[in-house]
Amino acid sequence: MEVKKDTEGLGVVKYDVTDLAITKMKTDFMALTVKDLDDEAGCTQVHEARMVVKNHRVAVEKKRKDLKAGALEWGRKVDSEAKRITALLEPIETHLQTEEDKVTKEKERIKAEKVRIETERVEGILAKIDDIREKGTPHFLFGKTTAQIADVMAFMIGIGNASYKEYEEFEKDALEAYETAFKAISEASQKRIEFEEEEKSRKAEADRLAKQKKEQDDAQAKITEENLKIQEEKDRLWRDKKAEQDRKEREAFEKKALEEAEKKAKEQVVKDLKAAEEELIRKESLRPDQEKFFSYILSLQSIPEPEIKDPTLVKTMAAFQELFHEVCEETKREIETL
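^ thats the sequence. predicted structure below, dont judge the formating
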């Protein structure tokens, strides 16, 4: 089904405002400015010009919507018809694609399987060749003993006696890898034998030197032990002499200290007796005044309270008497401590 759009009567879209009119407005209105807040004439002129421009803009927008209304409806109809036809065609295309894929995908699978088999064959051969190369590398041979290298050599001889036909188109690469590795293993074996012989010689010499050093160390240890005993005896005699000297010095120091302590003790006793005598004289001289003070306080405490009837003054008198009693008692205690 073919859908056609009626284009009769369509031409250049025209609006009520022309480019010439817009150019004139731009020339007239873009020069308008407002000087400050007090420029009422400028504000009015700018506002009126803006309303002219706004009215043209609103009119253009309204006409745009009116002109486009029919076009939107036509677009929706076109989309709807296209969607309906596509829905009818898709099942047919899907069926045909499925039938075509039965052959196409099977061919692709067979091709991919052949590639996989060939890749595995080549990778398997190259892995065997890499294994042969690896046997001759310094990394593989490093640290191996003569016996271990001999085992590697036997393995390589077994490979050399076998047919190289299994390596197919890589037969030449396999042969080159074998010859290179075999040569490296042979050289490593010879070097290892020489190294182990040198190690035996070095170990024998090291053992001899170690034995010699041990004998020297034992002799030196014996001399050191004898010297240590002699030094210990010297140290013991020196300690005994030092201890005797320290004892004498300590006895002299203790004797002098005791004499000084006895002297200070006697002086302190004399001083204490003198102080006690002075204190006794002071207290005896103070006693008459103390007795007078006590009598004064007792006389104050013996004054009878006046008879008071006012409740407020009764409370005040009671508080006064309590405070007065505490002052008197505290004063008597202070007098007693003098």
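Residues 19-101 form one domain.
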